[in-house]
Amino acid sequence: MVDRAEQRRVRAEEADALLYLLLSKACDALGVPTEGVALVAVGGYGREELSPYSDLDVMLVHVEGYPRVDELAAQIWYPLWDSRTKLDHSVRTLAEAREAAAADDRVALGLLDARHVAGDSHLTLQLRSVLMADWRRTARSRLPGLAQACRDRASTVGELAHLAEPDLKEAYGGLRDAVVLRALVASWLVDVPHPVLERARRDLLEVRDVLHEVAGRATDRLVADLAGEVAAGLGLSGRDELLRHVYATGRTLAHVCDVSWRRVESLMTKPPRSRRRQRSGGPLLLALDEGVGQHEGEVVLMPDARPERDPVLGLRAAAVAADRQLVLSPAVCARLAASAADLPVPWPGEARRLLCALLGAGSGLLEVWEALDQAGYISRILPEWDSVRFRPPQSAIHRFTVDRHLLETCVEASAMVRDVRRPDLLLVSALLHDLGKALDGDHSVTGAAIAARLARRIGFNDADSDTIALLVRQHLMLAQVATRRDLDDPMTVDMVAGIVRSTETLDLLEALTYADARAAGPAASSPWRMRLVGELCRRVRGELSGGGESMWTEAPPVPVPVLHQVVGVGRLGLTVSDHHGDLRINVAVPDQVGTLSTVAAVLAVERLAVRSAVITSVEGLGISQWTVAGSAPDPVRLRDRLAVALRDSSDVVRRLAARDSSTARVASRVDLLPEASETATVLQVRAHDRPGLLYDVTAAIAATGADIRSAHVSTLGAECVDVFYLTDEHGAPLEAEDARTTAKSVLDRLTF
Q: Could you tell me if 32 and 108 are in contact, meaning their C-beta atoms sit under 8 angstroms apart?
């Protein structure tokens, strides 16, 4: 097995030997003494953490009045540059080094790791002593600025545990933060768990070593193209296992940072000892709940608390901490993980209530859950959680690992607990809805089975457990139906109503859908998607309560009085308006097969991304209403371009083909959905999104003679799902053979 720590130490020793030789030769050549001058390794080189292509951070320290110091430095640096060694160098006196450290926190942190390489060792020792004393003396005033710098860096770069291509050094929870934690320890103000810190730092260094070897250059970003080779170099099975390892390490470091900075903040707000009231006895404890108290901003166990006798104590402490936005003491977390009594099966009512209180605490949930998870307590009470810990997201629209996404969904759901009758079912479903992602197959199906078992173990009765399982099984259904089905088709509403069966369940599923989408990220929770989900739920709610809002209507999507404003000269008209953050474009053209594809081509050339389209015919006009994203076009210019394209579409098709030619074709899928509608043939297209995709599909449909009654476009990341409701010339569903021919025509168009 490769000892990469030893390899890093050997690289540092080789660099030391070279610098020792260069300093000796330079002093001999210039006739200057080695006393009063020293070469000092700083930063990663000072810590002997050189990866294969790391820079050498070196400082030439000298006493005041040392002769010919600039010439000496040149004779050391130039041979290194000639050998193409990457060098970060400086020349300073002791006073100048102190000034540089005082002015720049990053310089100060690098100098805390100063290590003697060559020359006057007493000078290096003096440098280290002075800099360490300065750091400890000024730490109280400097740490707030350092904390802000860490927050700014985290905001700019992101968190190591949630980046698809993580920066091992600069991301929050990366190697830079490991250096910061060492500086906090050096300040003597706070302590950190040294074994945890050193293990995490070593793991990240080993990943970076292999990354350098694979990339053949210095880099800290673990890009997707290199991840497979890096995983192989570390003996891991592939990119997912590598990312899970990196995410776990980053989360550990980030958690240690969070706890440490909270303790620093608490320390900064304490009055000086001379102003504190003298008190006798032990530390002041504020009782918060049975067996749970507060001490210096942390939730702790009371002296008489016995977690080995009270199986609910851990959940009680967690719920109290999350509700009050307090930190759960790391010592308490470790004690709970090691000695807490097992919860009986099924859980008692108090345990279930406390779990729901914890999940409903809003943002306070995140840090408390992370502390318990790092200690191992979550794995004890919910063993299924281990299967999704640090699991990378499989979709580009997700911004978090699977486990963090589940917690973020709980945070979002907590804002809607007053909108549902059973908030406990909503919160537990939010926690469990993606547990199936650890298994092969449809994660909604596998997750529903896991959720049903877990719900019963947590203590829900059979009816509530079945509801939780239903919510998990259908947590994607509302968004998929709303964006891929015709909401005006009665079968759409009937299908959803048949699944949820009650307004109470619909309320829960709607809230879970919103929470899941918002936790996933902006792409999944766009105003357009959320608006469609809301409209679908409104219609289903009307159906379940006896209303008739889901009935199909032949009324045109554009109100009849407005048609006269839309239709212009030559029975061709167009309007553009804002619509809930997107654009609404109404188009009226002479009704004939193929006009929809022409409109789609013009919109694509104008770089307008189609969200949805609804089409109908009125008095010989084809009326289409488009919801698009992009910059608002000039309506007059867009109408003129459309008029030209309707007469001769060759130019717009040529321009669209030119844009599309550089895009590689990815395998597409075309399906007929016979159960989706009784009044139309429903065609579903799954494809990689690209310019002109909608034009290609609609042109292929038009070539078969089928009419498009409505189109529903849903794009998530780079993947697109388009659903078309097709009829024949008489407005009836296509014959089976015609439907198959149309589907094949579309697939051929997308493939060749």
A: no
| Coil vs helix vs strand at 585 | strand
% of the chain beyond a pLDDT of 90: 66
Do 181 and 130 fall into the same domain? no
From CA 329, how far away is CA 317, in angstroms rounded? 10
Question: How are beta strands 298-301 and 292-295 bridged, if at all?
Answer: antiparallel
Q: Kindly report the backbone phi and psi dihedral angles of residue 381, in degrees, each rounded to the nearest multiple of 5, phi listed first.
A: -90, -25
Query: Which of 24-28, 163-167, 564-568 is modeled with the greatest confidence?
Result: 24-28
Q: Are 114 and 124 in contact (CB under 8 A)?
A: yes
The reply to whether 617 and 717 lie within a common domain is yes
253, amino acid identity: L
Q: Which residues contact 14 (CB under 8 A, 6 or more apart)?
A: none
Same domain, 565 and 543: no
Does residue 148 belong to any structural domain of this protein? no
Domain presence at residue 538: yes
DSSP code for 157: H
The 3-class secondary structure across 427-465, one letter per residue, is HHHHHHCCHHHHCCCCHHHHHHHHHHHHHHHHCCCHHHH
As a whole number of angstroms, the distance between CA 513 and CA 530 comes to 9
Neighbouring C-beta atoms of residue 647, cutoff 10 Å: 8
Name the pLDDT band for 610 (thresholds 50, 70, 90). Answer: confident
In this model, does residue 359 exceed pLDDT 90? Answer: yes
- 398 lies in some domain: no
595 & 731 share domain? yes
In the predicted structure, residue 563 carries a pLDDT above the cut 50: no
User: Where is 20: in which H helix or E strand?
Assistant: helix 4-30
Cis peptide before 346 (omega within 30 of 0): yes
Q: Is the pLDDT of residue 193 over 90?
A: no
Q: Where does 63-192 show beta strands of DSSP type E?
A: 87-93, 115-119
Give the integer Cα–Cα distance in Å for 472 and 449: 9
Global pTM exceeds 0.70: yes
Q: What is the 3-state secondary structure (H, E, C) of 263-327?
A: HHHHHHHCCCHHHCCCCCCCCCCEEEECCEEEECCEEEECCCCCCCCCCCHHHHHHHHHHHCCCE
- Tokens standing for residue 153: 């860096």
Domain that holds residue 614: 560-751
Distance from C-alpha of 656 to C-alpha of 650, rounded to nearest angstrom:
10
User: SS3 string of 593-661?
Assistant: CCHHHHHHHHHHHCCCEEEEEEEEEECCEEEEEEEEECCCCCHHHHHHHHHHHHHCCHHHHHHHHHHHC
Tell me the average pLDDT of the chain.
Answer: 89
pLDDT at residue 664, as a whole number? 58
**315 pLDDT exceeds 60?**
yes
Average confidence (pLDDT) over 690-713: 86
For 416-466, write each residue's pLDDT tens digit. 988 888 999 999 999 999 999 999 999 999 999 999 999 999 999 999 999
Q: Rounded distance, CA 77 to CA 695, Å?
A: 62
Q: What's the pLDDT score for residue 549?
A: 37
* pLDDT over 70 (residue 570): no
State whether 77 and 191 are in the same domain: no
Identify the CA nearest to 137 among candidates 191, 190, 188, 192. Answer: 188
Q: How many CB atoms lie within 10 A of CB 576?
A: 20
